[in-house]
């Protein structure tokens, strides 16, 4: 397996996921890769790139809090108070992106992986397909999900905004801190109303 993966294909991404993830997370990544590819096909992004980022997006999700904090320090990923409180939850995406970027992964793909948990303003179609696929993959079930699934095959921008809204409602409902990236993504859709 090459360490230079700027052009990593879905098969190599799948092998990397298999080497890093337990069975449950591997199956989740498979479902996200397939759904992201479906959304990419509908919205004019690359299906192969979507499969690649789908397979790779959670490769750091099975690390412990200590391991992810050490990896963040090693790779220069910023750690604020919110990240320190939820290390794996909030750092597995940017740490995976930094690790893959250092190994030569294309910046656009690395950015999509970096943003898959909380989102940001100005995400491209690939990043939104991954973010929405991770939110909508078939094993998930919660109130409001059907609306996001419907939007995901007609308007990926609105789907991403709706997913950010549901995420914010959930996070605020549990009295937890809100990541600014999620608010920025929400505001892209709802900020001018
Ligand atoms: Fe994730
Ligand atoms: Fe995921």
What does this structure look like?
There is one protein chain. The longest helix is centred in the first third of the chain and has 21 residues, at 23-43. This protein has helices at residues 10-20, 23-43, 47-56, 65-75, 81-85, 87-102, 107-114, 125-136, 145-152, 156-173, 180-190. Helix 8 packs across helix 10 (156-173) and helix 10 (156-173) packs across helix 11 (180-190). The protein has a single domain (10-190), classed as Hypothetical protein af1432. With 193 residues, it is an all-alpha fold. The structure holds fe (ii) ion (2 copies). Residues 28, 32, 57-58, 134 line the site of one fe (ii) ion (FE2).
Can you tag this structure with a few keywords?
193 residues; mainly alpha; Hypothetical protein af1432; 11 helices; binds fe (ii) ion
Order of helices and strands: HHHHHHHHHHH
Examine the secondary-structure arrangement and name the CATH architecture. Orthogonal Bundle
* Assembly annotation: single chain
Strand content: under 5%
Distance between the termini: 49 Å
Structural class: mainly alpha
CATH superfamily: Hypothetical protein af1432
How many domains?
Answer: 1
Shape: globular
Give the biggest sheet: none
Outline of the structure:
The chain starts with 9 loop residues before the first helix and ends with a helix.
Q: How does the SSE layout of this entry go?
A:
Layout lengths: L9 H11 L2 H21 L3 H10 L8 H11 L5 H5 L1 H16 L4 H8 L10 H12 L8 H8 L3 H18 L6 H11 L3
Helix pairs in contact: 1-3, 2-3, 2-8, 3-7, 3-8, 4-6, 6-7, 7-8, 8-9, 8-10, 9-10, 10-11
The site of one fe (ii) ion (FE2) has 7 residues, from helix 6.
């Amino acid at each position: 397996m090459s360490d230079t993966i700027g052009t990593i294909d879905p098969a190599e991404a799948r092998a990397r996921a298999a080497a890093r993830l337990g069975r449950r997370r591997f199956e989740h990544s498979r479902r996200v890769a397939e759904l992201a590819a479906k959304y990419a096909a509908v919205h004019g992004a690359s299906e192969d790139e979507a499969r690649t980022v789908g397979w790779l997006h959670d490769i750091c999700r099975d690390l412990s809090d200590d391991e992810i904090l050490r990896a963040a320090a090693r790779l220069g990923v910023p750690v604020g108070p919110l990240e320190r409180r939820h290390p794996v939850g909030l750092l597995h995406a940017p740490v995976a992106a930094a690790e893959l970027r250092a190994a030569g992964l294309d910046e656009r793909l690395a950015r999509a992986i970096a943003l898959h948990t909380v989102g940001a303003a100005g995400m491209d179609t690939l990043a939104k397909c991954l973010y929405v696929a991770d939110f909508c993959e078939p094993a998930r079930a919660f109130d409001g999900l059907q609306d996001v699934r419907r939007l995901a095959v007609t308007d990926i921008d609105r789907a991403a905004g709706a997913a950010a809204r549901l995420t914010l409602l959930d996070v605020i409902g549990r009295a937890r801190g809100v990541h600014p990236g999620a608010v920025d993504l929400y505001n892209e859709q709802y900020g001018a109303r």
